Amino acid sequence: MQGARTDDMGVTVRDAVETDLAGVADIYRHYVENTVATFDYVVPSHTAWLAKYRTIREANRPFVVATLSAESDQHIVGYAYLGTFRAMPAYDRSTEDSIYVRPGLGGRGVGSALMAGLLDRADPENVRQIVAVIAATGGEGSVALHSRFGFTEVGRLRSIGHKADQWIDCVYMQKDLWEPSS
C-alpha cells in the first residue's frame, strides 16, 4: 500500500481501504441521481462496491481516495480507480479510469490530485493504456483534467447514451503509459 501524499492545496491522496467505500458510494450516489456524468440509473449497493474494489485491487490496479487536510481524514472528498476497459483477455493491460469529486468541491485541486495519485500508482508492467469515457454533456472539466495529464481525444460516440430525457455523446480520451511524456 502506497502512503498518502498531500499536495499544495491540502488534498491528501491515499490508497483506498474497504472502510472508505461508504464515502465513495455517497459521492457516486449524487452523480447517479442528479447528473449524466455516469450512465448508471441505479445506485450500486455496498456489496457491488466491495466486489468492484476487490476486483481492482486483485488486478493490482490503483483505487485511491482524497481527503482535505482541513477536514477529518475519514471524510472522503473524491475517489479514482483504474477499472476494466473490456472483459476480453486481449484488453488485459488496458484500463478505464473513473474519477469523481464530491459535489461543491470542484476547482479545489481534488481532481488533479486524484489523477496524479492514480498515474503515480499505475504500474506500466500491468497497465499500458488508460481510456477515459466522458459524457460530453457537462464533461468539459473532465476533458480539461485529462488533457492536462497527457490524455488525447481519440474519438466521440454520438448520442450513445440516454439519460435525463436526453441523448448524450461520449468523448473517448486515451493515455499510453509506454510512450514517453512530451
UniProtKB/TrEMBL annotation:
Keyword tRNA processing: no
Record flagged with keyword DNA damage: no
SUPFAM superfamilies: Acyl-CoA N-acyltransferases (Nat)
Stored PROSITE patterns: GNAT
Pfam families (alphabetical): Acetyltransf_4
GO molecular function terms listed in the Swiss-Prot or TrEMBL record: acyltransferase activity, transferring groups other than amino-acyl groups
Domain of life (superkingdom): Bacteria
Domain annotation N-acetyltransferase: ranges: 11-178
Annotated keywords: Acyltransferase, Transferase
InterPro entries: Acyl_CoA_acyltransferase (IPR016181), GNAT_dom (IPR000182)
Name the record gives this protein: Acetyltransferase
